[in-house]
């Protein structure tokens, strides 16, 4: 009985994840819910992976009014990342896990969409690369007719006709016009396809006469419906046990389960749209490219992988500010991490940016680098600007930590930070100095951990700019997404005790789970301070130590540390940045960890941390302790 109850609980939990994260529940009724749970129940009863099928992701439309180019971009990435999140969440609770099949339907409609075969393959290959970089290729599979023996006797350009010949519905094409007159739903679909394709293919159709366009649109709409029937028959044959998903609008009655691919509750697809991040609202807007370019505000194309990837929208305070912001260029280090905004104009201060918009950019992209803007000549000027965002974390030496290889400056003891040594990967203020009186008996992580902080490069004069003082930052939210759901939960249930040299011998230490939910973004994020002891880094000025405080899954700290290095230092989730004098870098302190390589030469950085918003922050007036003055 206990096993039956456990399995039924799994059915409920898996169904909830699917409904909460994927299925649109459009015009749902009880039969749709019962059918979904019954399908999940069959998988669970037989200890088999849950199997999903989504025919989609054919190629980008040829209409460049709608999309940026023929390759996948931020739109496809956001959707695939959403799918991977669902996969990880089901893996976390159900050991057999899940297999999510995306069946590319390019060949089904290739004769009607006027997209080159090479563009389709380029598109599919880039999609698979995105999935591979999230370490999910085993569970999120992008397939096509070429993967099935029924089509081995055909060349790829013959798949279109081969599908109809092998799987077409007898009599459907021949009697199409008569059937359409007797079936209102069929006629509505036909008219809807004509309307959609008249816009989608308008540049191709423009060379035809009005009469020819009407005939071609009728041919396209009819042909797509005929091919759609054949595709359904093929998919029913090959994926009969799968939960069938759809990008189209269907009532949830137990046949096909419609998806909202984006957070917006609308049936939009990334291969017919472009994505814009609206920094004023802190959210993505999915629309046709020409609509984005016609929006109010400052629209900046964002480059990634040597091409336009998406757009961001900024708000200008004045017409002069708008003119300057329009000249700023933007580039991403990774698909959704590490945004750099570059200015090459005179008299262009960072105060051109709205603080609220910078905050949303940091929250979304993890790190934001402002390069080429007017210099801050003194720490007080940086403090004055940054304090407009909120209260600053006070240290004995003030709000600004001047990081430079000058022993004893600001009245501070010697430390690795104020040296030319490499620094371990860490997040800021994870082990506050004892004088801050931050006890974990009194304060939670979100009470004393800054949401963000700023690093300003006042001077950087490395001997070798290729290797000296490289800033390494890892996207720990993406790192959490790249690991299997079961391992993710094992890390969540494992706590590590971190100690610095001065507190290690009988002093204070801090304990954190290796994985937690980010209090700012709601994402899973890894919290890791890289071990920096004599075994790994002999002679370091300020060693730090890690030990397993509690875990049901790990006993060997060295093996665990090796695994964390493998996950968090993977080039797919980490970036390297060489500072230039004047660079200003804003970091999301919850979804990143950062460190640096050793350097020769001179570098001076200014660091300021923003106080967390918690009512129980140690720096709230009712908690604040007066620091002893530094001599």
From TrEMBL:
Keywords: Oxidoreductase
Pfam (any one): DIT1_PvcA
Gene Ontology molecular function terms on file: 2-oxoglutarate-dependent dioxygenase activity
Domain TauD/TfdA-like: 356-608
Name of the protein this chain belongs to: Pyoverdine/dityrosine biosynthesis protein
């Amino acid at each position: 009985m206990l096993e039956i109850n456990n399995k039924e609980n799994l059915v409920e939990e898996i169904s909830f994840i699917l409904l909460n994260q994927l299925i649109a529940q459009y015009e749902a009724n009880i039969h749709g819910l019962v059918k979904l749970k019954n399908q999940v129940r069959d998988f669970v009863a037989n200890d088999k992976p849950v199997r999903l099928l989504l025919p989609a992701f054919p190629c980008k439309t040829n209409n460049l009014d709608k999309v940026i180019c023929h390759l996948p971009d931020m739109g496809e990435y956001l959707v695939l990342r959403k799918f991977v999140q669902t996969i990880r969440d089901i893996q976390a609770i159900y050991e057999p896990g899940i297999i999510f099949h995306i069946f590319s339907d390019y060949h089904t409609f290739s004769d009607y969409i006027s997209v080159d075969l090479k563009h389709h393959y380029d598109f599919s290959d880039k999609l698979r690369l995105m999935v591979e970089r999230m370490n999910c290729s085993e569970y999120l599979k992008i397939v096509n007719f070429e993967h099935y023996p029924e089509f081995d006797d055909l060349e790829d350009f013959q798949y279109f006709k081969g599908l109809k010949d092998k799987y077409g519905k007898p009599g459907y094409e021949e009697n199409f016009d008569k059937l359409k007159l007797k079936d209102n739903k069929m006629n509505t679909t036909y008219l809807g396809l004509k309307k959609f394709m008249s816009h989608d293919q308008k540049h191709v159709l423009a060379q035809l006469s009005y009469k020819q366009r009407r005939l071609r649109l009728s041919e396209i709409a009819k042909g797509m419906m005929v091919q759609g029937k054949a595709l359904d028959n093929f998919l029913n044959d090959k994926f009969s046990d799968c939960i069938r998903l759809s990008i189209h609008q269907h009532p949830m009655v137990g046949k096909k389960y419609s998806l909202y691919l984006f957070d917006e509750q609308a049936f939009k697809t990334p291969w017919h749209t472009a994505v814009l991040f609206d920094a004023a609202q802190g959210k993505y807007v999915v629309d046709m490219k020409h609509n984005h370019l016609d929006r109010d505000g400052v629209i900046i194309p964002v480059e990634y992988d040597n091409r336009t990837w998406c757009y961001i929208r900024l708000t200008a305070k004045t017409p002069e500010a708008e003119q300057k912001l329009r000249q700023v260029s933007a580039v991403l280090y990774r698909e959704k991490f590490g945004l750099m905004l570059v200015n090459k104009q005179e008299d262009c201060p960072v105060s051109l940016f709205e603080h609220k918009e910078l905050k949303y950019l940091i929250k979304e992209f993890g790190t934001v680098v402002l390069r080429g803007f007017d210099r801050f000549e003194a720490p007080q000027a940086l403090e004055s600007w940054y304090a407009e965002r909120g209260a600053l974390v006070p240290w004995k030496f003030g709000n600004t930590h001047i990081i430079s290889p000058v022993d004893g400056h600001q009245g501070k003891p010697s430390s690795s930070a104020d040296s030319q040594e490499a620094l371990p990967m860490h997040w800021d203020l994870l082990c506050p100095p004892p004088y801050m009186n931050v006890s974990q008996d009194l304060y939670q992580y979100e009470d004393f951990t800054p949401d963000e902080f700023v690093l300003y490069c006042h001077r950087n004069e490395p001997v070798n700019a290729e290797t000296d003082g490289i800033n390494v930052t890892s996207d720990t939210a993406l790192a959490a997404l790249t690991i299997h759901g079961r391992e993710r939960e094992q890390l969540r249930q494992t706590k590590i005790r971190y100690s610095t040299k001065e507190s290690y011998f009988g002093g204070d230490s801090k304990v954190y789970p290796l994985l937690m939910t980010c209090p700012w973004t709601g994402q899973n994020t890894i919290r890791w301070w890289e071990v920096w002891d004599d075994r790994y880094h002999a002679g370091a000025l300020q060693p730090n130590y890690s030990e397993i405080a509690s875990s049901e899954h790990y006993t060997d700290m060295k093996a665990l540390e090796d695994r964390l290095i493998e996950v968090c230092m993977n080039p797919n989730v980490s970036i390297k940045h060489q500072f230039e004098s004047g660079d200003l870098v804003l970091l999301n302190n919850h979804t990143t960890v950062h460190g640096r390589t050793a350097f020769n030469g001179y570098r001076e950085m200014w660091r300021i941390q923003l106080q967390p918003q918690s009512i129980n922050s140690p720096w709230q007036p009712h908690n604040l302790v007066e620091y002893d003055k530094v001599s």
